[in-house]
Amino acid sequence: MIPDHGFAWYDSEVSEIPMEDYNPNDYYLDEDSTEEYIESILVDINKRSFCLFGSDGNERNVESDSVEEFMVVLSLIRDVVDEEIIYYVEPLVEAPN
After folding, report:
1. In terms of CB atoms within 10 Å, which of 4, 21, 67, 72 comes out highest?
2. Angle at 91 between CA 67 and CA 19, to 5 degrees
3. How many structural domains does the chain have?
4. Residue 10 burial (C-beta neighbours within 10 Å; 0-12, 13-18, 19+)
């Protein structure tokens, strides 16, 4: 079960739609809309977390409790969100001795 993180689009719409029935064109805002939307997402694989940046300047951090939960959320983001607004933190890698 993925926890509620306070985003209406996530909680009430996307989580209820089987991905094969998902049409991204159903979720675009009108040009004159004043609703907040996600401008970019920063994925931190090291921390298993996501930082969502909203159009109104809001910022939401979503931390996963497990690898499985992180992968489910990451898959959802990759399926639903435009690639151009997804950014990744450089992974921490130890150099071999």
Report:
1. 72
2. 45
3. 1
4. buried
Q: Which amino acid is at 16?
A: E
Q: Does residue 4 belong to any structural domain of this protein?
A: no
User: What are 43-82's pLDDT values in tens digits?
Assistant: 999 999 999 999 889 999 999 999 999 999 999 999 888 8
Got the DSSP string for 79-94?
HHS-GGGEEEPPPP-P
- The answer to whether the beta carbons of residues 67 and 21 sit under 8 Å apart is no
Residue 40 belongs to some domain of the structure? yes
The two structure tokens encoding residue 58: 């809001």
